[in-house]
Amino acid sequence: xxxxxxxxxxxxxxxxxxxxxxxxxxxxxxxxxxxxxxxxxxxxxxxxxxxxxxxxxxxxxxxxxxxxxxxxxxxxxxxxxxxxxxxxxxxxxxxxxxxxxxxxxxxxxxxxxxxxxxxxxxxxxxxxxxxxxxxxxxxxxxxxxxx
Length: 147
Prior knowledge:
- The protein is α+β, with helices and mostly antiparallel strands.
- It has one domain: minor pseudopilin epsh fold, CATH 3.55.40.
- The chain has one helix and eight strands.
- The protein has a four-stranded antiparallel β-sheet, with helices on one face. A four-stranded antiparallel β-sheet has the order 4-6-7-8, covered by helices on one side.
- A hairpin with a 2-residue loop joins strand 1 (58-63) and strand 2 (66-71).
- The longest helix is centred in the first third of the chain and has 44 residues, at 2-45.
- It is elongated and about 70 Å long.
- The mean pLDDT is 86.
């Protein structure tokens, strides 16, 4: 009898916590994206050199299920120095409002190259819950989370 009652209570608690866990997942992943954006911008500002020894700008290329941190004047999918961040199966970028799906940081200043306020965000969505967050870039390259 006691085990039955504990089983029912455990089932209820799991069902009530489930939506909170899934909401945390989209927020956690968006926080990781914000940190990656800041690091990538900092690399451009510090004029860091990649493995090729070049001091070219750094940027982020977005696809529906992942984003790629890259170095160079243009995104090159075959570059072995790229760092690919794959989203969990339940997350995707439902909207990528960036020119050529790229945000690139100007070398030295860290400003967004060819900034367009109408095309400066990505929307990350959790498929199972429909929960979305917007990551918005300003002209100075700072990414902001909008819930």
